[in-house]
Amino acid sequence: MTDRLAKNLLLLQLLALLAGTQMPGAWRAAALTELGLGGGISSWAHFVLFGGMAALAYARPLAWPLVRVVLVALGLALLTEGLQFFAQDRHPRWLDVDIDMAGAAAGLLVVTLARMARALRARLKFVLKSAPYDASD
How far is residue 75 CA from its own chain's centroid? Predict the structure, then answer.
């Protein structure tokens, strides 16, 4: 993935998050009903978006430092909840900030596990190449 593509994907996820956050409550309910989705889908959407954004920012090619990813995710979670004061029939909740941060943590965990697996695979490949092979054993 190129740096430009990663930045564009991050921007696309951010725009989807902000558009969903500012959608009036009645529009959101109508859209969810029309799609046949329950009310809890909004929390899942936030979890997935924050996970995707955190993973994208933490992984290569962007490779933001961990502290930066966490602080940006927290700031964005607080911003999206704060913006709900201005959206019709929407109410900010601390629980939503927790859901957003849990999604970011999940995204960071996925990238960390992928890095660990890649390092382990490289180490095993090195060990297997350097070990002498004796057919008589």
Answer: 14
Dihedral sign of CA atoms 46, 16, 51, 94 in order = negative
Task: For the chain, give the number of residues.
Answer: 137
DSSP assignments along 5-19, one per residue:
HHHHHHHHHHHHHHH
Those residues whose C-beta lies under 8 Å from the C-beta of residue 114, and which sit 6 or more positions away, are 59
pTM: 0.84
Q: Considering only CA atoms, which of 115, 117, 1 is closest in space to residue 56?
A: 1
Q: Where does residue 58 rank: exposed (0-12), middle (13-18), buried (19+ CB within 10 A)? A: buried
User: Token pair of 12, please?
Assistant: 């696309």
Residue pLDDT, tens place only, 87-110: 878 889 999 999 999 999 999 999
SS3 content of the chain, % helix, strand, coil (to 5): 75, 0, 25
- Per DSSP, the three-state class of 129 is helix
Omega of the bond leading into 61 within 30 degrees of 0 (cis): yes
Break the chain into its structural domains and give their ranges.
Answer: 3-130
